[in-house]
Amino acid sequence: ADRPRVLALVGPTGVGKTTTLAKIGARAVIEARQKVALITIDTYRIGASEQLPRYGRILNVPAFVAKDQAELQEALERCKDADLVLIDTAGRSTDEAVAKQIALLRGVSGVRLQLVLAATASAAQMASVAERYRALKPERLIFTKLDEAVAPGSILSAAVRIARPVACITDGQRVPEDLHPVEGSSLVDRVIGNWTYGRGCIWIRQTSFES
User: Fold this and answer.
1) What is the pTM of this model?
2) CA geometry: angle at 140 spanning 138 and 144, to 5°?
3) Residues facing residue 87 across a β-bridge
4) CB within 8 A of 74, min separation 6: which ones?
């Protein structure tokens, strides 16, 4: 019912936030026929401020670059006629940098944080990132790069640690084809579906969700 609906994709560097944002935007434009606007606050990476406007031209939607709170508010004001506003962010590697970025985003009324995590991360890396972002209370999780993950079981640990619903997964570079909705049972099947279903596997399933 909110209009525009504002989603900000946050997470560590290299997890595919910008590509995932493009997939969500393309799906909204092509399938849902929604008015979409794109904003990036990633002014740290070389070329990052040019990448999102490029997607905007491909999708034929407006795209803006915001360097600070004032420019972000101005961009959002220009997006007030949109159904969906997608905000891209830079990957941040320290607790202080993450907190500063989230403070900027939480200053936007109604923004919903989507934490993007890559299934290619090790269990230790996933646990570290999950701990860093858990206190920031993201509304949803997005898991990317399932097609590249040799052992994607760590994503279940992240889902348990942060205890938020999984919005979708991605498993390739195609826009928007490689973006999929997912439910808990199908996610478990995707992660451990090739295992032999003995008593041990059933116990692991139950433990993952009971935790």
Assistant:
1) 0.84
2) 110
3) 8, 39
4) 66
